[in-house]
Amino acid sequence: MNILKKIWKEEDINEFNKYLVSLKKSDSEKRTKKIVHSNKKIIGLNNKECIEIAKQIKKGNYLSFLNLMSFEYYENTLINAYLISKIRNFDLLKKYLDVFVNNIDCSTSCDTLDFYIGKKKEKYFTIALSYLESDNPYARIVAFIILFKYIEDNKYIDEIFNIMNRFYDEEDMNVNTIIAWLFCECFVKQRDKSILFLSEHNLNKTAINIAVQKCRYCHRIDKEDRIALLKYRKR
Asked: Is the separation of the CB atoms in 157 and 193 below 8 Å?
């Protein structure tokens, strides 16, 4: 199928989904279902394959593709996510991202999001703050994904720690996990501030224990620090 188009029509999406199914490999669906917990139909294409497809779509009129926003298959969500995060017009990106977070049902649908913040730090931070207030756990996950882009900026790092502390009563496992990932990356890139944060943190048991575990398996963190982090585990 030609997926580099000047304009996408409704019938093209139906053909596109058939094309995705044609790429299915033997037993790939079963393997993916063991990892992905989605109620959407699953073909079994991996993230790399979906990104390559999205890159081809992006060479054409990918906004007309997004206007049709298919969510029939889990793989659609990965392709949509990649394309949305490549939009440079901030208002358009926000428009499509709002649709995206309200049509996914698993955290791994966010895996291909790859935001380019550039000189729009304040605007993207506003998205994060807005999504953090959402009752939708996937909106909160996207918010934390955006915050990864601010870790090395000393203007924002203290606010990132303050935000993590606000989620002491977070009950969603996937949100707690992304918080843990965020802390691990903070420890890698802002070690001293992260140690100070740990001395007075307000993370819940799930988040801090996962965070410690992720740091312990991270070889970008010194062995001595990985051992020292054990004292912060909660029992």
From this structure: yes
